[in-house]
Amino acid sequence: MATTSNRPMIIQILSIWDQAGKVETANYIASELKDRDWNVKIFNFAAVTSNNGETTVNEDPANPYSLTYRYRNSDTYTELFSYLRTNPEVIISILPSVSNGIDNSVIIKTADMSLVVFDGMLTWHEAETMHLTKLKALIGKSFFTLLTNGKVEYMEDMFGEIPKDRSAFRKKMKQLLTRFAGRP
Fold first, then answer.
1. 70 close to 102: Cβ distance less than 8 angstroms
2. Distance (Å, rounded) from C-alpha 61 to C-alpha 66?
3. Element (H, E) at 32
4. Radius of gyration of the chain (CA)
5. pTM for this one?
6. Tens digits of pLDDT across the chain (184 residues)
7. Dihedral angle of Cα 100, 101, 106, 111, to the nearest 10 degrees
8. Helix, strand and coil in the chain, % to nearest 5
9. How far is it, in rounded angstroms, from Cα 51 to Cα 36?
10. What is the CATH number of the domain that holds 70?
11. Which residues of 85-97 are buried (b: 16+ CB within 10 A; e: fewer)?
């Protein structure tokens, strides 16, 4: 992994829509890695490119020293982060939502791991399928998906009834009713 290489491991976090939980996901991953003594840096490109995104960082995209300019004009993550004084083992890159457009389609292909975050409270439409198909074609390799804000009550709508632990009384009642109804 990243510890045996001079180059940091790049984890990029994407989503179809804003507010899907990318920042929380990145913070959680960073926290878990830091607990295991990994040197981790997080860069939030969603914050500097989206007006209605997760934060309100304002940068001039025409300024060559701005993070936005570097992100839009770099061909690889190595080039993008070449200015860093320290060499972290892992860099977590939070990218703008795909629905707002992909600012740099070249750099997305160069990450070591891609994680696509979906909000479990949103209904899936054709637009999500279209954006996901574009991402698959662009990334070209497998990526991981993560469902945030999921609640069991709402998951049943998608997956059918989720089995719950039954008490001994409910199990006996089901056996009795099954025999009474003539089912095996």
1. no
2. 7
3. helix 22-35
4. 22
5. 0.70
6. 444 567 889 899 988 888 888 899 999 999 999 999 999 988 887 765 444 444 444 555 555 556 666 676 677 777 777 777 788 899 898 888 888 777 777 778 888 899 999 887 777 778 888 888 888 888 877 788 888 887 766 666 656 555 666 777 777 777 776 665 555 5
7. 30
8. 40, 15, 45
9. 35
10. 3.40.50.300
11. eeebbbbbbbbbb
Distance CA 100, CA 113 (A): 21
Residue 59's domain comprises 2-181
- Note whether 145 and 24 are within 8 A (CB): no
Amino acid at 110: T
* Tally of domains within the chain: 1
Residues 141 and 84: their CA atoms lie apart, in Å, by 28
Whether the CB-CB separation of 80 and 73 falls below 8 Å is answered with no
SS3 category, 6: coil
One-letter amino acid of 99: S
- How crowded is the C-beta side of 122, counted as CA atoms within 13 Å? 17
Tell which residue, 94, 86, 73, 83, has the closest CA to residue 26: 94
